[in-house]
Amino acid sequence: MRKYFQFNELGTNYRTEIIAGITTFLSMAYILFVNPFTLSLGSVQDFPDELRMDPEAVFVATALAAAYGSILMGILAKYPIALAPGMGLNAFFAYTVILTMGVPWQTALAGVFISGIIFTILTLTGVREKIIDAIPIELKYAVGAGIGIFITFVGLQNAKIIVDNPATLVGLTDFKDGNVLLAIFGLVVTIILMVKKVNGGIFYGMLITAVAGMIFGLIEVPTKIVSSVPDVSPTFGAAFENLDQVFTLKMLGVILTFFIVDFFDATGTLLAVANQAGLLKNNKLPRAGKALMVDATAVMVGAVFGTSTTTSYIESTAGVAAGGRSGFSAVVTGVLFLLALFFSPLLGVITAPVTAPALIIVGVLMASSIGEIDWKKFEVAVPAFFTMVTMPLSYSIATGIAIGFMFYPITMVLKGRAKEVHPISYVLFVIFILYFIFIRE
């Protein structure tokens, strides 16, 4: 096994890789509880229960998708990169597709599955590189930052720190509610842990907040911590129930958003983690095809189990910082996700005030890409800014992406830089114009 994972060549050993795998798991374990809460729309009160996803089934789907992706990434691509259902895409799945557009969650899962098929085909044919080159780097950064701002906005709403205001649409709460104070406490604790660079700071922040909530009677104390694995049948295979409803104009924009966001997220994460681990050779990623293929199949497998898009996690850098260099650390992370299946009773203590700080902090981390945008060039600043600001204001990641891709060719042509715009960008411009005219409701 040491030879297969190239321990000697990479200068690592079992102890280091195991510690790295545990570190990565702790850094991303929050998704086990945030994802079920998000996909089941736990923070939305006036929503029919029959239209919600089963949180326990989503918990199992989340763990299984993460285990599959992480273990396969470690064994096939041999990279210390873990996978799990992605933040941002789960918010788009729940708040935009299900809540705003009124799409049944079964159909949304089918859309995720189709996007995984597209991702797989493009990876096999090598078209991936062409599409990456066609999308301007400024919009790639803007999409990531915009999703971060959107997630933070959702977190502030879930915590009821930001509330409805008839006069100004939104406003600040009066801070008299105990749950609001609990969320603020959790946010402060998580910020302290992150500033101190504590590995797994977001996860530990959730645990401390949950314990505080139980101490002050805001959260019910669970009767047990370990139990048998919950039933995944409520979501397993549901993606195939409404597969025929995916091939509509309405779902085209949804699938396109699933694909675009995961496409760039997966590629960017792979490069970032590999670079930190010193695994890039001549600025290229060895075995990139295998890594992206794992990511693509994980999307489909996750959809079959019953969760939104599964993707590579930037939190893998925590494991790399702990010394992880081989795929063995990713395998360790995947095995820990399987063990986590027996801790479903903890779902009961993961309430909105507990998950809100995690959403807010993840949003902060994602928004860091704002600094990579050249704001001095107005023709670049306009589409980038509209991409970011439209996502939270329209409560739609898809709308933000569409607005940005519409403005980019316009400002570039007016600036006299039309030749720098890739033909695919013009195609996307037309597609999104048609999307607003004929598809978006």
From TrEMBL:
Q: Is Membrane one of the keywords? A: yes
Q: Does the keyword Transport apply?
A: yes
Can you tell me where the transmembrane regions are? Answer: 18-37, 57-76, 83-102, 108-127, 139-158, 178-195, 202-219, 251-273, 326-347, 354-373, 393-414, 421-439
User: Major location, coarse class?
Assistant: membrane
Topology term for the membrane: Multi-pass membrane protein
Q: Which Pfam families match?
A: Xan_ur_permease (PF00860)
Organism domain of life: Bacteria
InterPro entries referenced in this protein's UniProt entry, alphabetically:
Azg-like (IPR045018), Azg-like_bact_archaea (IPR026033), NCS2 (IPR006043)
Query: Where does it reside?
Result: Cell membrane
PANTHER family named in the record: GUANINE_HYPOXANTHINE PERMEASE PBUG, XANTHINE/URACIL PERMEASE C887.17-RELATED
Tell me its family: Belongs to the nucleobase:cation symporter-2 (NCS2) (TC 2.A.40) family. Azg-like subfamily.
Q: What is this protein called?
A: NCS2 family permease
